[in-house]
Design brief:
This protein has 524 residues and is α/β, with parallel strands linked by helices. It folds into four domains: 119 residues, NAD(P)-binding Rossmann-like Domain (Rossmann fold, 3-Layer(aba) Sandwich); 178 residues, NAD(P)-binding Rossmann-like Domain (Rossmann fold, 3-Layer(aba) Sandwich), CATH 3.40.50; 128 residues, D-3-phosphoglycerate dehydrogenase, domain 3 (60s Ribosomal Protein L30, Chain: A), CATH 3.30.1330; 74 residues, 2-Layer Sandwich (Alpha-Beta Plaits), CATH 3.30.70.260. The protein has 17 helices and 22 strands. The strands form four sheets. The protein has a seven-stranded parallel beta sheet with strand order 8-7-6-9-10-11-12, sandwiched between helices. A six-stranded mixed beta sheet has the order 14-13-15-16-17-18, covered by helices on one side. Strands 2-1-3-4-5 form a five-stranded parallel beta sheet.
Length: 524
Amino acid sequence: MPRVLIADKLSPAALEIFTRRGVEADVKTGLSKDELLQIIGDYDGLAVRSATKADKDVLAAARNMKVIGRAGIGVDNVDIPAATAKGVVVMNTPFGNSITTAEHAIALMFALARQLPAADASTQAGKWEKNRFMGVELFAKTLGLIGCGNIGSLVAERALGLKMKVIAFDPFLSPERAVELGVEKVELDELLERAEVITLHTPLTDKTRNILSAEALARTRKGVLIINCARGGLVDEAALRAALDSGQVGGAAFDVFVTEPAKENVLFGAENFIATPHLGASTLEAQENVALQVAEQISDYLLTGAVSNALNSPSITADEAPKVRPYVVLAEKLGLLAGQMMDEGLTAIEVAYVGDVARLNVKPMTAAALAGVLRPMLAEINMVSAPAVARERGVTVQESRQESSPVYDSLIRITLTTPAGEKSFAGAVMGGVPRIVEFAGMELDAAFAPAMLYVNNLDKPGFIGALGMKLAEAGINIATFNLGRVAAGDDAIALIGVDQAPHTALLEDIRALPHVKEARVLGF
């Protein structure tokens, strides 16, 4: 009988499901790291929330571990690379607390509009300051959503019920999906200029970190209300405090902070600021939902091998795995390349399979490609949830197969369609290793590296030397150097594997070199 350790407080429903399904489960919460290290080797599965840290030490001691299930969406407490290296599947429950989080955002919006916390404290202190707390109606106000995925769309639905006007910034939201939701899709600058209330519903990634920076806050309507129930770090907290003090921002309500637990914060003490201690998922219903889901998912995997909501493993049967796995790896890396090269809103993805690969089960490959494309903007995306997320945002996904290949035994090509046009990227597996063989229409042959520098330039003499000199001056070692071009003197690209990722200042210096059109850092 498989054994599972429930290391964090979960609804009793989880234990009931494990028992009913034939999985032995022990509830041992509040363990120190040393205590966890002593017993973790006895278990096949681990069920956690956010308190227990499944780091590399714990995973090293987990000699029988096959699966870790997170009751909730965030997996910051699980070392996914270490789990992957050990062959441990990491699952989450991304949709169990969506309604609860959306309702909390709406609750904070009302609290800000009517100054409820301050009015409550004043009244209970016996002051009866009726004239002090002049509120505003939400009726007919413009709500700006930064992120309109699962939770954002639920907030939009509720705001429309309040007769608010809803506008949304989300690169993955298609015009058709926006119409279906009843929201107006806009760019970020327009949202900042028009929104009277702003709520954030996006993961924290390199592209979304401080998306509401000091500069962005300065472009908002004076007196705007800002609500963040998503992730700490989406808003520059120091800049927001300054904007609250100056009156540029009329009020803010945060459930999440850069540092948690937030025992102190620059925002605390501002008269027009409301704080809650990360309560977005804290309802009986949400905790019941995620507990049920994580218990079902762990049981399914341990008893049947079925994989649901895995962050590091596609849905592949045991028979298919040896043939399919190398192409799943290629598809995900190729998708991640394409996603990092996309700046415009995504409307369609086509994954083409050419050669022998076209005869295999390509569904896991397409899911892996989608996860790679979406991950730069949606950090917590996984191969199971990626197709649903693409559908949710109205992104068209197409597969095509061609069993004959003129050059490679097997080739995968990903084509992204955005308002700016199409971009395609192709790769092949050579000697069991995924490689890039086509980049935006240019042929080349490059291995994926953890850190890579991409440069688009005119093919002119002296460029390679000047670029190499810049990297050398910065102390950055070149591991691989691959070139492609349209024709002599025409458009060219360089894909350079580097031992250290170039910093922002160096990237700006490279962009300033003669003949350089574009430069960016890629990570795999």
